[in-house]
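Write out structure tokens for Na(+)/H(+) antiporter NhaA.
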Amino acid sequence: MECREVGSAIIPPTLQELTMKQPSSSPLFPRGSFPEATRVAELLRKETVGGALLLVAAVVALSWANSPWREAYSALRELTVGPESLHLHLSLATWAGDGLLAIFFFVAGLELKREFVAGDLRDPRRAALPVIAAFCGMAAPALVFVLLTIGTGAGALDGWAIPTATDIAFALAVLAVVSTHLPAALRTFLLTLAVVDDMLAITIIALFYTRDLHLSYLALAAVPLALFGVLVQRRIRSWWLLVPLAAATWGLVHASGVHATVAGVLLALTVPVLRSEAAGGPDAGPGLAEHFEHRLRPLSAGFAVPVFAFFAAGVMVDGFAGLAVSLTDRVALGIVFGLVVGKVIGIFGSTYLVARFTRASLDEDLRWVDVLGLSVLAGIGFTVSLLIGELAYGAGSAREDHVKVGVLAGSLLAAVLAAVILRARNATYRRIWEAEQRDTDLDGTPDLYETEAGRDPLDPTG
């Protein structure tokens, strides 16, 4: 609030002006613009369907692996297909982890780039909290895992990154099951947290789980990657050009020793988000990133991730006795406590500290228990956790089943606890959700997204 100048006198603002026009603090979880909230809601609906398919695939895999026909499941996982001359004669389980998850990370890369180029998170002030929370939400579980497994030996510490991931599809499926209407601000925070989490996870995979690196293949991968980038920057959508280049990039990255899913992210980062490089120009608007995401997200959420879950989640538990034996392994316990306790420490703790040391505060309708519920929900680390587990200890290793039990038990426990916490607040969430939908003037924009001037200043349609 600035002083007013009247003639030669400078008049300070009145107490009423200070209290009415100057907010005491900024919101910790800003609602964002209406177009962004609408886009996030639509995206989460698609992921919720994918999460339901993922859960079904995991249940089928667990049931089959613990049935009298378990040998058929193992044989299916180990069935090898592909051209041996290209060193791609791989098992179906490997194709699911290295191939199908590359599609998943391609879509995640598109979403990340879109958020930071054209989404609400292009504002560093809005991006800071979910990025900090995602980073701390990965560091704390890793630390918990290390503290519980240090001194175990036999390469136990190799799995430090297993409990760091968040499975957004699984989390949304849990919200759908308990019929929870999260407010727009919390939905946006959860999605952004998960997207940043995915990117940090793929960085960890590239840096810490790359073995037998072949730089020549990695250098060769830059050629189709660059050609792919040139074509998409020229807004060329021809699949018969782009798909072979993407496949060549994937194959060369796979041959280099770097996990092939990294290729998905690298390809995504070359795709333009806006029609025009000059944001706000006459041609500015949705670019190829949105087009590709619209086409590929159903394939990722509806096929790639569920198929990976089917091949990765099948672990022979052998009843409660077998479950108890697996959970005596400190690696499995490290995963469980990392997901359930570490995620809460990292996300809730960092969010509280951001609020404590800045002027940010919770919306008047929200409480810290809501942040706690989201932090627990982020402990569902199914898909990427299983992938990192295979990379850390190797498929078919002695610890493979223990790792899977730890991931499944930790994710299930986090899901149950989050459902209890968030369900208890559902009446409040429903009231906020109804307020966010209310449009008294029937102009197509809910009242909460309109400012005194008439529109949200971040809404390009205003």
